[in-house]
Design a protein that fits this description.
Blueprint: E1 2-7, E2 10-18, H1 25-40, E3 47-53, H2 79-90, E4 93-95, E5 110-112, E6 115-117, E7 120-125, E8 132-142, E9 148-154, H3 178-192, H4 200-218
Parallel strand pairs: 2-3
Antiparallel strand pairs: 1-2, 3-7, 4-7, 5-6, 8-9
């Protein structure tokens, strides 16, 4: 099951999953295919959180998988755990509940008949794993008779505002100063080979010409297009 929500202007896709128990090989293959399909269907740029009972032991250190294993697990790795580590590696995700140093009671997610293990996981993309500030089980709160509640705490960074570039305003009011006006007129005379500035009409001409020059400096002077063999303008990057 997956759900997409908006948090602080960003899309988060939360995936809840349950993997078949050890020994159900055909069901396991089907589970990983389905999970692959779900993750591949998520839009680029969205944040992904995968959580659930994935029924695998990733070991206490995750030797060879240091990029996805946080180094704080329980017991030895098994074949199902390797499948979890391979999946996390393929999608550049990290097992958050192996990231933090915890007492065993806060690492164990499954407890039955005196047998304790870590088979429930929360995975997030590596580039966002720093925002996870804690992850542990709550021993006194159990989802079922054997599984403990696994929680993750994240500190979501506020998105930086993108400042748009604003064109500098033309400071027309400065022309009210006689010295600046005369300097401006001299420069315009040099450029325009002499335009009257003394009378009112001449001043209007100067303002008009200056405004047109300013506008031309901002407008696109040339548009370049790419056309196909049949003369059609190509607009999509893939076609170009």
């Amino acid at each position: 099951m997956s759900v997409t929500i908006d948090i602080e202007g960003e899309c988060w896709t939360m995936v809840s999953c349950y993997a078949p128990e050890v020994g159900c090989d055909d069901d396991k293959l089907s589970f990983w295919r389905d999970l692959d399909s779900v993750v591949q269907g998520i839009e680029d740029g969205e944040r992904i959180v995968i959580a659930g009972d994935i029924n695998g032991h990733v070991g206490w250190r995750g030797v060879g998988y240091e990029g996805v294993h946080g180094g704080h697990g329980i017991g030895n790795v098994n074949q199902e755990g390797i499948a979890i580590l391979d999946f996390a590696t393929a999608y550049e995700m990290k097992l958050v509940n192996t990231k933090f140093t915890k007492i065993p009671n806060h690492l164990v997610t499954y407890n039955s008949g005196g047998h304790q293990s870590l088979i429930d996981y929360i995975m997030v993309q590596k580039k966002f794993v720093k925002e996870a500030i804690d992850c542990k089980t709550l021993p006194l709160e159990q989802v079922t008779g054997q599984h403990r509640t696994l929680v993750m705490k994240m500190k979501i960074r506020e998105r930086r505002k993108r400042w748009e570039k604003v064109s500098r305003k033309v400071r027309w009011w400065k022309l009210k100063d006689r010295n600046i006006r005369e300097e401006f007129q001299a420069e315009m005379d040099r450029i325009l080979d002499g335009v009257a500035f003394e009378d009112e009409e001449g001043q209007k001409d100067i303002f008009r010409i200056a405004a047109e020059r300013d506008k031309k400096s901002k407008d696109i002077g040339q548009v370049v297009t790419v056309k196909s063999e049949d003369g059609r303008i190509l607009m999509d990057e893939e076609d170009i």
